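Give me the fold.
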Amino acid sequence: MRRWWVMLSLVAVVGFAVAQDDEKPK
């Protein structure tokens, strides 16, 4: 089962998006 890399990628993308949104003042 190689679903772990999919979950890791999803978490990484979501975390990156949240971090960018956090740094960016709205």
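Residues 3 and 9 are 10 Å apart (CA to CA).
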